[in-house]
Amino acid sequence: MTVPALAATPPLVQVFKDPNCGCCGAWIDIMADAGYAMDIREATYDDLMRLKVRSGISEDMASCHTARIDGYVIEGHVPPADIHRLLSREARRHWSVCARHAMGITGHGSRERT
Predict the structure, then answer these.
(1) Taken in order 82, 83, 86, 90, is the CA torsion positive or negative?
(2) pLDDT, tens digit, for every residue of 27-40?
(3) Which of 17, 27, 92, 111 could join 107 via S-S bond, C-beta 3.0 to 4.6 A?
(4) At what angle do helices 23-33 and 80-87 cross, to 10 degrees?
(5) Number of structural domains, the chain?
(6) What pTM does this model have?
(7) From its phi and psi, is residue 100 left (phi > 0), alpha (psi between -120 and 50) or beta?
(8) What is the CATH number of the domain that holds 91?
(9) Is residue 29 in some structural domain?
């Protein structure tokens, strides 16, 4: 599968996260390695939940971090390839959500079961 290339100037990804969450940092690193410019903002739990509600994220879909990129809201550990596709012309009006942490998802552990 071919993934569209990022624009010459990558879109800024604003990430709002709990300062105590370690898996958010892994996802942020993966996104930065994929060429995205990252702006990290730590927020209290209450502020993070308010942001999610204002962004249209229901409680049952909430994850540990919320990102904004090019007018879209990304919730949780969405892989960079999916975000590339989201930002492509073919998919300009969709949201991508990956709530509920499962081992093996981008930035959240290995695929091996222990």
Answers:
(1) negative
(2) 999 999 999 999 99
(3) 27
(4) 60
(5) 1
(6) 0.70
(7) left
(8) 3.40.30
(9) yes
